[in-house]
Amino acid sequence: MILHYIVNYFINYTSFLLLITPILLFLLYSKIKDKFTNKPLFKIVVIFLYLINFLLIYARFVEPNIIVEKQTSIETGFKSKIVLISDPHIGAYNSTRFLERVIEKVNNIDDVDFVVIAGDITYYPIGDLTTLLSPFKNLKKPTYAVLGNHDSQAPGPYIEKELKEALEKNNVIFLKNEDLYLENLDIHILGLGDLLAEEVDTEKLDEFKDVENLLVIAHSPDTVYSYEEIKPDLTLSGHTHGGQIRIPFIYKYFIPSDYDFDEGYYETKNGKVFVSSGLGMTGLPFRLGIPPVINIIETY
């Protein structure tokens, strides 16, 4: 576990070397260009290296900080306006300051009924979790959260107890195979444990045989394929990051889903699913072609 911390923080800090690489390339080019004056291929290689370098700089320092909002309408049989955020991964790659920016944007969205956090709240965090996640306390609307695999040692540190306490201290309601009823909206919300951590209890769905207006929060969208008789009106998920580094024809092979979920809205045999491409990063501190997103979901 310590090795995972070392590797991820090492990758994070060494990635800043990308910022000086253009200068190093220029110095190298200036020193050896006279030897390759009559070789066009040399100039092509230099241009290619510059383009790759600037693309990496963009994917490391620009796109991960472009927080977009996407609006979707879904027919569910109940009326609500939900803000869905997922996979902020506060820790090795994303900071508390990044989370502050997310919360500021969420609070500026009009007429929201409640906020859903669909797991993977952390990524090898260091320090007091209550402080790291303190921006959640500024949310103006009721907020409900489940854990993801990186919060549940699959992989990641086992921090469930500390994370639950931190969320509750920051006014976020933590749900793990638990439900609650929003009387003003006539909606039942069921938050499930994580699928990869083998902590999901889909038998909880059996308690809703005669219930209408059921919303499920499950970190991995693959969870829906473990539903049996009861099909919720809508399942909200994250986990996929939309591929995170969205290179055409390649990125889908890296999405952690056995059922070809990517991002966006799906209709499955076990009900409707909305998958957020999330906010954060894992593995490498890059996002390309899929900027961090806050999803605004209007149900009707």
Automatic annotation (TrEMBL):
Keywords: Hydrolase, Membrane, Metal-binding, Transmembrane, Transmembrane helix
Biological process per Gene Ontology, one example term: lipid A biosynthetic process
Keyword Transmembrane on entry: yes
SUPFAM superfamilies: Metallo-dependent phosphatases
Transmembrane residue ranges: 6-29, 41-61
Entry keyword Kinase: no
UniProt signal peptide: none
Family matches, as PANTHER family: PHOSPHODIESTERASE YAEI, TRANSMEMBRANE PROTEIN WITH METALLOPHOSPHOESTERASE DOMAIN-RELATED
Protein name, entry field: Calcineurin-like phosphoesterase domain-containing protein
Species of origin: Candidatus Dojkabacteria bacterium
